[in-house]
Amino acid sequence: MQITFDLFADSESEQPRRAEQIGDQSWVLRGFALPHIERLLPALESVIAIAPLRHMMTPGGFSMSVATSSCGELGWITDRSGYRYSAVDPLSNQPWPAMPDAFRELAQAAATQAGFAGFIPDSCLINRYAPGAKMSLHQDKDESDYAAPIVSLSLGLSAMFLFGGFARSDKSQRIALLHGDMVVWGGVDRLRYHGVLPIKPGRHRLLGEQRFNLTFRTAG
Ligand code: MD3
Ligand code: FE
């Protein structure tokens, strides 16, 4: 009896782990990362100690409200010359930090759960949202192979995610993404428009006044 009680010492772990289908080949895995948070947060800290979060410039000359960094062989960058993947961090001119095993293993497990066994991410983009930060509707088109899924992990403050169609003007579904939720998008849903509404002010027990989203991709 004592043992089962200890399993629920952290109230967030009481969230049932369940899969919600949001598209023909897209799934929200509620609470999927919760059993691994204690390994994930130190790994995240060690990555951003080497490759600090920064507000990159869009090709149009605006600073992103989201602060970004990356780990893995390739990192997503933007500047006045455009959006692309780079093997080096433009701040340091050094390779991005290695992808922590805890990250890769979690992303692979989530992909497998959603029907994409054999997913090998070579890039993890780290997005940090302070309250008010948002991401406008866009498609992810900078990767070489659209057959691979994209896997995301949400940490900290919750977000309202917009999941649209194949034209910017298509109606979007709104999906709340909470600490520990993972999402897998693949196949026919890979090129759907998506975005994030401005993050509401708040304080998360572990992460404070911020939301992190980690996006795992096969980019190269
Ligand atoms: C849906 N990030 O970094 S999760 C991005 O929460 C991005 O930070 C959001 O969109 C965030 O590009 C959303 C990731 C996501 C990534 C790719 C997708 C959702 C997707 C591709 C197709 C459909
Ligand atoms: Fe995106």
UniProtKB/TrEMBL annotation:
The keyword Iron applies. Its cofactor is Fe(2+). Fe cation binds at H138, D140, H194. Keywords: Iron, Metal-binding, Oxidoreductase. Its EC number is 1.14.11.33. GO terms for cellular component: cytoplasm. Pfam families: 2OG-FeII_Oxy_2. GO terms for biological process: oxidative RNA demethylation. Substrate binds at W76, Y83, R84, Y85, D142, R168. This is DNA oxidative demethylase AlkB. Residues 120-220 form the Fe2OG dioxygenase domain. GO terms for molecular function: broad specificity oxidative DNA demethylase activity; ferrous iron binding; oxidative RNA demethylase activity. InterPro entries: Alkb (IPR004574), AlkB-like (IPR027450), Oxoglu/Fe-dep_dioxygenase_dom (IPR005123). The keyword Metal-binding applies. 2-oxoglutarate binds at N127, R128, Y129, R211, F212, N213, L214, T215, F216, R217. Binds 1 Fe(2+) ion per subunit.
